[in-house]
Design brief:
The protein has 5 helices and 3 strands, in the order ααβααββα. The chain has 120 residues and is mainly alpha-helical. The chain has one domain.
Length: 120
């Protein structure tokens, strides 16, 4: 919980220090990234299946017809139930049954200044 409080404090600091931002990365931005990554580890969502086995099941080859696609999807859903996550708003990781990271969700890891400067 303490990390989330620190993360929110840094997010509040960003607009204040926005005038100091230039092409150089600031200490506040580095701390923001670090705290966001730490929060992802503290907020895992675990699938009930092994990712390596899932990959092997999917690798078997694409179904040839739309009917066999439906059957293949039903078979996958039977053994590898999708996670019901809803709408994520905090940093999180999605891991398999062994803790292997499948997805990182890192909202706000880049400041608005960085996002805009990368787009222009």
């Amino acid at each position: 919980m303490r990390v989330r409080v620190q993360l929110e404090a840094f997010k509040e600091k960003i607009p204040i220090e926005a005038d100091k931002l230039n092409s150089n990365i600031t200490e506040v931005e580095i701390k923001l990234c670090a705290l966001t990554i730490v929060c992802t580890f503290l907020n895992p969502y675990a699938a009930e299946w092994d990712a390596d086995r899932y990959v092997n099941a999917v690798k078997a080859g694409p179904p040839r017809s739309s009917e066999s696609r439906k059957v293949a999807q039903l078979k996958l859903d039977k053994y590898y139930r999708p996670l019901e996550l809803g709408h994520l708003i905090e940093p999180a990781t999605i891991v398999d049954i062994h803790g292997q990271i499948l997805v990182w969700y890192l909202p706000g890891i880049l400041t608005n200044f960085r996002v805009v400067s990368q787009c222009s």
